[in-house]
Design goal:
The complex is a heterodimer. By secondary structure, chain A is mainly alpha-helical. Chain A has a domain of 97 residues: Rna Polymerase Sigma Factor, Chain: A. Chain A has ten helices and no strands. Chain A is 75% helix and 0% strand. Chain B is flat, with a radius of gyration of 35 Å. By secondary structure, chain B is an all-alpha fold. Chain B starts with a helix and ends in a 6-residue tail after the last helix. Chain B is built from five helices and no strands. Classes of the chains: A mainly alpha, B mainly alpha. The interface between A and B is large, with 42 and 30 residues.
């Protein structure tokens, strides 16, 4: 039995228990999906505190709407689709504010040499540029890379045909290359400087 | 030579593959220690809260039907009363003296200029992105 099948079986069992009135069974669901949901929220806002708040809101909505899961898709697909809706509406209510990278980024390991730090900073700048894209292009980029480049999974979460996601991804990449020349130059200059050092 | 290297490097770095590589490598966040407990606290609160009171449709339906009936009846009566008045209405333009026509024409041009200015202002705001003026 593969890991994903085991997780799906555990999800199913926990959902059944919750629907039967066992509130504590929801803890299993939160435990399994807290990291993916926080990381997904992080990609939407790039603010750790807010990512946790949005993930918490998504779990609450999942709790309220558990009986609406029709089981025609996997629990994770349903949960991610619901979370995407929550994150989208949260960001509509309170749009993200671009703040300096050093105030938000929380690296798990300290930056070592200058080259490494430069590369990291320039990569972060490109990731932040995704947030400046219009939502119709931003979301496919976020979900495609969050789903480890699984186009079908991203399409299922967004409820759109794969072709549409593919077209929007392509447009988003073109926008990233052309619409943010300051980031391109910053990115390449930083990396270049890093390699020179 | 350095400039050539830099240019080549820029072209290489912003290739679709480079963007793809950057976006695919993201550091994983670890949930904070209190996250699970805080979610479960809120879930427990919701579970303990009494269910929301359903809307009293049984009591409201007669009222809604009555209000719709009154409105419909009012609309029919209004139409019946207004129909003869509309038929009697003359479509001939009102007579305006020559002394009045000129100022009206000028006012028309002023209004047109104001509308054109407003539209160009709105268009420029749209092009420049939302400002904090409004």
């Amino acid at each position: 039995m593969s890991a994903s099948t085991t997780i799906a079986a555990q999800d199913l069992a926990d959902v059944d228990r919750v629907l039967a009135g066992d509130v504590r069974a929801f803890e299993g669901i939160v435990r399994r999906w807290q990291a993916p949901l926080i990381n997904m929220a992080w990609r939407y806002c790039r603010d750790r505190g807010r990512a946790e708040e949005m993930a918490q809101e998504a779990f609450l909505r999942a709790w309220r709407g558990l009986s609406h899961w029709r089981r025609d898709s996997s629990f994770s697909t349903w949960l991610f689709a619901l979370a995407a809706n929550v994150f989208r509406s949260e960001l509509k209510r309170f749009p993200t504010v671009n703040v300096p990278i050093e105030e938000i980024a929380e690296p798990s390991r300290p930056a070592g040499q200058l080259a490494g730090a430069c590369e990291k900073s320039s990569h972060e700048a490109v990731r932040r540029a995704v947030l400046a894209l219009p939502m119709r292009y931003r979301e496919p980029v976020i979900l495609f890379y969050f789903q480890e480049k699984d186009l079908a999974a991203a399409a299922r979460v967004m409820g759109l045909p794969e072709g549409t996601i593919k077209a929007r991804l392509s447009r988003a990449r073109a926008l990233l290359r052309s619409r943010f020349p300051h980031l391109e130059s910053e990115h390449s200059a930083l990396e270049w400087a890093g390699k020179e050092a | 030579m350095n400039r050539n290297r830099k240019d080549r490097h820029q072209r290489e770095e912003m290739s679709p593959a480079a963007i793809d590589r950057i976006l695919a490598t993201e550091e994983e966040l670890v949930p904070s220690s209190g996250f699970l407990a805080s979610v479960m606290d809120r879930v427990q609160e919701e579970a303990a809260a009494p269910p929301p009171i359903p809307f009293p449709w049984k009591r409201a339906i007669p009222g809604i039907v009555l209000a719709a009936g009154v409105l419909g009846w009012g609309g029919v009566e209004l139409g019946r009363a207004a129909l003869p008045a509309i038929r009697a209405l003359s479509l001939a333009p009102p007579h305006l003296s020559a002394a009045l026509i000129q100022p009206v024409q000028e006012a028309g041009w002023v209004a047109l200029a104001l509308i054109a200015s407003l539209l160009s202002w709105l268009f420029s705001r749209r092009l420049a992105g939302r400002s904090s003026l409004l």
